[in-house]
Amino acid sequence: MADLTLDHVSKFFDDGGSKVVAVDDASVTIEDGEFLVLVGPSGCGKSTTLRMIAGLETVSEGEIRLGDDRMDNRPPRDRDIAMVFQSYALYPHMTVRGNMRFGLEESTDMADADIDELVEETSSMLGIADLLDRKPGELSGGQQQRVALGRAIVRDPEVFLMDEPLSNLDAKLRSQMRTELQRLQEDLGVTTVYVTHDQTEAMTMGDRIAILNDGELQQVATPLEAYHRPANRFVAGFIGEPSMNFFEMDVQGDELVGDAFSYELSAKSANAVEGSERVTLGIRPEDVEVIDDAAADHAYETTVDVVEPMGNENAVYLELGGERRFVATVGGMRRVEAGESVVARIPEDAVHLFDATTGETLQNRSLESADLDAPEANL
Amino acid sequence: MSVRDDLAERVGVDLEAVDPLRVALYATLVGLVAFYLSPLESGLMTALKTEAEFATSPPFVPPTVEGFTLEPFGVAIDTLSSAILNSIMLAVPATVLSALFGSFAAYGLTNFEWRGQLGVVALFIAGIFIPYQAVLIPLSRLWAIVDTQSLLAPVLDITVFSAQVPVLGTVELATHPHYASIINLIITHTAYGIPITTLLFRGYYKKLSTEMLEAARLDGAGAFTVYRRIVLPLSMPMFAVTLIYQFTQVWNDLLFALIIIPSGSGPAAVATIALNELTGGIIQTFNTQMAGAFVAALPTLLVYVLFGDKFAKGVAGGT
After folding, report:
1. Which helix (H) or strand (E) holds B121?
2. Which of A65, A348, B176, B292 could form a disulfide with B76 if both were Cys (CB 3.0 to 4.6 A apart)?
3. Is A29 helix (H, G, I), strand (E, B) or coil?
4. Chain B contact for A151, CB < 8 A?
């Protein structure tokens, strides 16, 4: 068992003579037994990164190491990794048993009886022991998904790679498999890289998440750290549902001036934005307070445009100066009607400030309990 | 009660419910069936008649009791049997080889990426469109130069074709130096079949899941193992398509056989050649010719029956 290291890894594709950068100088170390989620919008290079680790794509620049062994020049079969694909990629002409045996038959010289025993053991762990003699075509999506997992687990590899393995399941089964997969990974203790575009999966499953955009690694952090201390505006907007509200504003001394409203800054925040002419103010929907008192500081008169009731909470879309500007979430039992006038308060301690041009974080929200898993060092 | 209603009641059909369009449709279909089957039927009836009966009755009318005979079939089988054996010895290997090589080529051309691939694919496709006539002279020159029999002599005495039959032991099927030309025909038909089989397999292999083949590679299988354990078992419907197509093609070929078999005849003659010779000299014996046609067509029919369901699957593109 060893750490998996991506050392300044890049991938270029040749697109009719012009160079397309799919992954740009990504460096990350995945510790032994860690569950790392690679997340980002489609086309951000997360699948390419995974395929480079698997050996299905060549590495254009940089190195991939498992422990101290360089892996990126080895063929896939010599890397001791197993991968679970989005489409499950089961062999349709083989039984479940055949599917699970295949990898052991091809990559080890284990005796038949030992292979059988291992397959039986793994299949009962996954609750598919009674399906061993069926073919993939006779199984439901959820069962196929378990077989795909079983095929990977039975090989006992150094690293699991998972490429959106849950995205073909229906919502209910997906959330069930999410917890099951997490528990399984914890029990097995195998280093796992998990690719998804679903930020819920990223938040709930990973020990750490790596957020990618346009082939560039934006931030590698624990889920909570990425949520509360995003490294830049992209991460702040990508993590969290509904997304963070953003306002483009000019810096004028101690005040931020935007199209719809102005925002007074404390000395500390004013210090943070010093040197920037334009900044982006960000506030998470749950931090927007819907109150009655228009006289409070940082409070603005707004009109409710649309209310989306979710049961446990209501997402309230607010208009400011005649345009829909931002979302606030309030408790599900609180009655808010469309057309109503309410006061929205944007408390300063929950405000994130980003440089408007670079997107870099200038100041994150302040937190009362600063005990997020990782220290504030990399901010 | 009108006559019409009375009739309807007696035959148990509600005439009001009969759609005239449907009647027209079925009438047309029956007409088409009769149209397509009438030559076959006439042929079969002719083959079952004596020559005297054939001369006095229309071809499609069944033979009378006196006019009925199986003799034409007896003659046809006697005359054609060795040629049919030759045809089987030609068509089976040529079919299997061209399907197998086509499948190899398609796998290499479809499921791997390499430089210049499309150019090679284009060459294969161009190969499909080379007319037989264009290669006749080069072919006859080639097989005049290449002496297959002496080339193969160190490994195989092809003047003797024998088979291991249970109980009977080694059975000599036939012996003649001209069997070298059957090997020449096998090679020619295999080569000529490869482009089309490659194209058929390529269309099929393009639809194979890339992720599945990648999964097999990650599972530790090399390129050939992936072919043997994944691609080949999954190509069975396509093999049925190519086998039927190629078998029919090779079995029915007359042109290559005439060119490659010396003097277009002799003991190495294939069924199509022998059938051509099954004419009664000056007097046309239509009944034996028809019987011969049926006997010669039987193997292709058998292949269709054996692989028919797989063929349908392959054409439908299922796996």
Report:
1. helix B117-128
2. B292
3. strand
4. yes
Segment among A187-196, B2-11, B132-141 with least mean pLDDT: B2-11
CA distances from B5 to A337, B17, B18, B19 (A): 71, 12, 13, 16
Residue A150 lies in a domain: yes
- Does residue B312 belong to the interface with chain A, where contact is any CB pair within 8 Å? no
What is the number of alpha carbons within 13 Å of residue A206 lying toward its C-beta?
Answer: 29
pLDDT score of A376: 43
Domain count, chain B: 2
Residues B97 and B139 in one domain: yes
pLDDT (mean) for A329-345:
87
Domain containing residue A330: CATH number: 2.40.50.140
Enter the pTM of the model.
0.80
- The answer to whether the beta carbons of residues A97 and A133 sit under 8 Å apart is yes
B230 touching A, CB under 8 A? yes
Summarize the confidence of residues A221-226 as an average pLDDT: 93
Regarding whether A259 and A209 lie in a shared domain, the answer is: no
Q: What is the ipTM of this complex?
A: 0.83
> How does residue A293 score in pLDDT terms, banded at 50, 70 and 90?
confident
Q: Which residues of B touch A89 (CB under 8 A)?
A: 209, 211-212, 214-215
Q: For an interface test with B, give the residue of A53, A104, A106 to mutate (most B CBs within 10 A).
A: A106
Identify the CA nearest to B193 among candidates B315, B314, B95, B289.
B95
